């Protein structure tokens, strides 16, 4: 056997590929004939290209010096891979070859001649390997008979007309940007149902279609055992079990792919011909937390609005860099020792119930779990009395209405509150040590004044509607957000959900603000007061005086705002909606607004480095609003007054989402009428009938950037004898070309004279200032389409980071 392999390798080395006489780089070909090969050294030049040019096949770099043999979308900006021959065994970046051998097989060889992968066609009449317009790589004979095709060996992606069948499954990649096999599978189960399954090292768990329902309730059929499904050219997918879904941009002539992504969601994508980016046009799971296995054992998934995993109290993350490894107990649980049950409110762990009974009292349910040493916890639903004793805790999710988990904890572990497993520490402080479950009434007593449960309902309803809209619109930015990046600290996630965002009573706010005594600001939308909550947190309380919305409307919109969480956005902690009062409660940001720091004569001058960091922070906040969070949140009123600075001078944008609240339809054209004093920040399209998009914020950001550089309001500038409001911007646009020339000239003081704050006394980075100025000018372009997106702005700013020597601080 071994001798065989060695001989084979030796033979290959000797026979080698008859050099690359006709593997000419750059020449477009779509076929390898017998004896032809591709060398890894020429990975960029020597590739097969489908006749229409939509697909390429060749060596694809996966890491430094590591390559796979793959097919990718030639017209996608990031060369998205559609198929990989050797996803789990990459080959060396030197000496590896892929070729169609004389024995009729397509073979991939590593540096040492070892065959890493091959088609099963040796000894057949096959004479070519050909990349077709469909993205299918076929090995065929002279008569055109296909003896092998890549379509039969899918990896994580199905292309139109590539079927998924009885013997094939899609397996996700293991992480973003990697090709290695991960734990998620799409396959036909033994009931003939097309399923998504987490198939991890410890457990397997199906999560799509809805695992709570039987197949008939999910509109599937188990009676057709042909087990076949495919996506057609129009963007419609159908399978033998009656799975049916459509791309939101149905029609021919669009490049599409159906990919089981690394995060376990199955998504249908369409390629935007313009910029080569993918748009999501359908997704199996609107809620990312419904994917099983994401947070591992004991981990609890929450959606904030990016996905976040956390561990319950008494547990720590096994591997902070890899949440699929979940959490581990900080205590052990021995059989027979005295225990109590710690409650995790509004949490459910899916599956692993060893008994399920309805209409039990909680005491009975508790007893069942107590009696069984393998029982780790039980879930209990008030009302229906559903009891789920669990032998293992996986797929935790929150918030989960009506369902609470009661975790078995040894009595010797004293630090877990038996009443409420509180993830934040200060919201609920019931510390009785009692080995019995707190009764329902006291549970609601404890929680009742802290969390409005109606809020959870509206939270979920709104979340669902919004996510449904994303799919229809075909733009699932939330899913593009990297879950790893979104995984906030263990406690933070829960804190946000359970302790921080909530409804306040009017009396409570009246007390906190000393009957609205300490007025700290006036904005277009209302008056702001400072206050202090019982727990010591300083708050800013904004009375939205002109709001007339019905309570439910206001509440649901507030819950949307409550889900927004970013370090450069002012954190909204809650709201009050009583009688005619509509009040917003947010964190109090110490240093007040940017206009005071930048234009105000009093206080220390903002140094160059601080200004740069403020620009970056504001760009991050806006990019989050536009791209990561909820696309339709256009701020509409970006100006220094709405940028607050904390003690470290980190900027936090305020008043986001409010404009939408104030005027639903037109993204607040009323801003225009209200904002006479600050007209300079408003994009020209406000005055026309053009739609208002995120690009309006980009314009305003451009103005703020100019002001950060200059330390003066744009409307007060005088350039070449022109000044006031829009004039400066017009001048900038007209002189853009001239400026570009000049900006490259390091020695020029022209820019410094005209645009940089003289108070800095030349203590600034010339390079940064020049680049920021250039960026600002592109942001204030007349045509919204020519302005960069906030993501691009942010990237550009971040690329300047290296040029801030400490001396500019
Ligand atoms: C290539 O893709 C474009 C859409 O991106 C499509 O219109 C065109 O028909 C495709 N070409 C071929 C040859 O399939
Ligand atoms: C080729 O494929 C056939 C059927 O799929 C299989 O029986 C055979 O073992 C394969 N041979 C090799 C060398 O993989
Ligand atoms: C089973 O599914 C296949 C593929 O979707 C379809 O062609 C066939 O008609 C179905 N059979 C029955 C009995 O519905
Ligand atoms: C998908 O589109 C087809 C028409 O092409 C329609 O018959 C079908 O009902 C649609 N399915 C869904 C789930 O919208
Ligand atoms: C499940 O619980 C019920 C109610 O206590 C009990 O009668 C039954 O024996 C239990 N079943 C198992 C398998 O433990
Ligand atoms: C524990 O609960 C029992 C009854 O549920 C009660 O009598 C007892 O006083 C409680 N102990 C403490 C320390 O609260």
TrEMBL record:
Record keywords: ATP-binding, Disulfide bond, EGF-like domain, Glycoprotein, Kinase, Membrane, Nucleotide-binding, Receptor, Serine/threonine-protein kinase, Signal, Transferase, Transmembrane, Transmembrane helix
Catalytic activity reported: L-seryl-[protein] + ATP = O-phospho-L-seryl-[protein] + ADP + H(+); L-threonyl-[protein] + ATP = O-phospho-L-threonyl-[protein] + ADP + H(+)
Stored InterPro entries: Bulb-type_lectin_dom, Bulb-type_lectin_dom_sf, Kinase-like_dom_sf, Pan_app, Prot_kinase_dom, Protein_kinase_ATP_BS, S_locus_glycoprot_dom, Ser/Thr_kinase_AS
Record-annotated Protein kinase domain positions: 514-800
Protein EC: 2.7.11.1
Location in the cell: Membrane
Domain Apple, chain residue ranges per copy: 335-410
Membrane topology of this protein: Single-pass type I membrane protein
Family in the record: Belongs to the protein kinase superfamily. Ser/Thr protein kinase family.
The name this protein goes by in its record: Receptor-like serine/threonine-protein kinase
Species the sequence originates in: Panicum virgatum
């Amino acid at each position: 056997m071994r001798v065989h392999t060695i001989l084979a390798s030796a033979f290959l080395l000797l026979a080698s590929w008859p050099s690359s006489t006709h593997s000419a780089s750059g020449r477009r070909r779509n076929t390898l004939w017998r004896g032809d090969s591709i060398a890894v050294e020429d990975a960029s030049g020597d590739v097969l290209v489908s006749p229409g040019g939509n697909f390429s096949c060749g060596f694809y770099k996966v890491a430094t010096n590591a390559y796979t043999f793959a097919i990718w979308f030639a017209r996608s900006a990031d060369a998205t891979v559609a198929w990989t021959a050797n996803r789990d065994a990459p080959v060396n970046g030197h000496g590896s070859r892929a070729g169609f051998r004389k024995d009729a097989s397509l073979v991939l060889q590593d540096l040492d001649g070892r065959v890493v992968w091959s088609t099963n066609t040796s000894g057949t009449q096959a004479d070519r390997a050909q990349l077709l317009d469909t993205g299918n790589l076929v090995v065929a004979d002279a008569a055109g008979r296909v003896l092998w095709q890549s379509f039969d060996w899918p990896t994580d992606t199905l292309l139109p007309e590539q079927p998924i069948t009885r013997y094939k499954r899609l397996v996700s990649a293991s992480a973003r940007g990697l090709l290695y096999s991960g734990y998620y599978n799409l396959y036909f189960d033994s009931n003939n149902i097309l399923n998504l399954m987490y198939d991890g090292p410890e457990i397997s768990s199906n999560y799509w279609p809805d695992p709570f329902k039987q197949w008939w309730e999910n509109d599937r059929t188990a009676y057709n055992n042909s087990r076949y499904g495919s996506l057609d050219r129009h963007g419609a997918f159908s399978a033998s079990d009656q799975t049916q879904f459509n791309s939101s941009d149905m029609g021919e002539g669009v490049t599409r792919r159906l990919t089981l992504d690394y995060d376990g969601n199955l998504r249908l994508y369409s390629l935007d011909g313009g910029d080569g980016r993918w748009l999501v046009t359908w997704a199996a799971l609107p809620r990312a937390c419904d994917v099983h296995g994401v947070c591992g054992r004991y981990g609890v998934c929450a959606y904030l609005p990016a996905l976040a995993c956390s561990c319950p109290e008494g547990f720590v993350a096994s591997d902070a860099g890899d949440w699929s490894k979940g959490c581990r107990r900080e205590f052990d649980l021995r059989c027979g020792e005295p225990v109590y049950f710690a409650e995790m409110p509004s949490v459910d762990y899916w599956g692993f119930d060893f008994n399920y009974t309805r209409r039990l009292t909680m005491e009975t349910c508790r007893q069942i779990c107590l009696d069984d040493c393998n029982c780790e916890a039980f879930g209990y639903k008030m009302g229906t009395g559903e009891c789920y004793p669990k032998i293992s805790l996986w797929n935790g999710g929150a918030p989960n209405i009506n369902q609470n988990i009661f975790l078995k904890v040894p009595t010797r572990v004293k630090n877990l509150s038996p009443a409420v497993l509180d993830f934040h520490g200060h919201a609920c402080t019931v510390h009785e040590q009692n080995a019995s479950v707190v009764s329902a009434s006291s549970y609601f007593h404890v929680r009742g004044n802290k969390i409005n449960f109606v809020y959870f309902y509206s939270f979920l309803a709104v979340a669902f509607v919004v996510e449904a809209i994303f799919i229809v619109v075909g733009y699932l930015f939330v899913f593009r957000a990297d879950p790893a990046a979104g995984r906030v600290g263990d406690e933070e996630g829960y804190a946000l959900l359970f302790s921080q965002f909530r409804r306040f009573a009017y009396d409570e706010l009246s007390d906190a603000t000393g009957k609205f005594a300490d007025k700290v600001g006036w904005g277009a939308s209302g008056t702001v007061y400072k206050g202090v909550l019982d727990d010591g947190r300083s708050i800013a309380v904004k009375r939205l005086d002109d709001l007339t919305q019905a309570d439910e409307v206001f509440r649901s919109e507030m819950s949307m705002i409550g889900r927004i969480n970013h370090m450069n956005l002012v954190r909204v902690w809650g709201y009050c909606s009583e009688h005619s009062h509509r009040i917003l409660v947010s964190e109090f940001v110490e240093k007040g607004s940017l206009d005071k720091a930048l234009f105000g004569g009093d206080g220390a001058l903002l140094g160059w480095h601080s200004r740069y960091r403020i620009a970056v922070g504001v760009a991050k906040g806006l990019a989050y609003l536009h791209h990561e969070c909820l696309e339709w949140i256009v701020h509409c009123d970006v100006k220094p007054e709405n940028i607050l600075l904390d003690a470290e001078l980190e900027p936090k944008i305020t008043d986001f989402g409010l404009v939408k609240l104030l005027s639903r339809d037109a993204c607040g054209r009323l801003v225009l009428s209200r904002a006479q004093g600050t007209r300079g920040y408003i994009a020209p399209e406000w005055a026309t009938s053009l739609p208002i998009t995120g690009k309006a914020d980009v314009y305003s950001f451009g103005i703020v950037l100019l002001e950060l550089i200059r330390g003066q309001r744009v409307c007060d500038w005088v350039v070449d004898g022109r000044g006031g409001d829009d004039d400066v911007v017009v001048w900038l646009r007209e002189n853009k070309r001239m400026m570009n020339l000049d900006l490259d000239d390091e020695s020029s003081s022209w820019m410094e004279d005209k645009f940089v704050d003289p108070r800095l006394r030349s203590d600034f980075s010339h390079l940064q200032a020049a680049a920021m100025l250039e960026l600002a000018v592109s942001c204030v372009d007349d045509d919204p389409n020519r302005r960069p997106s906030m993501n691009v702005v942010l990237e550009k700013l971040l690329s300047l980071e290296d040029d801030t020597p400490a001396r500019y601080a």
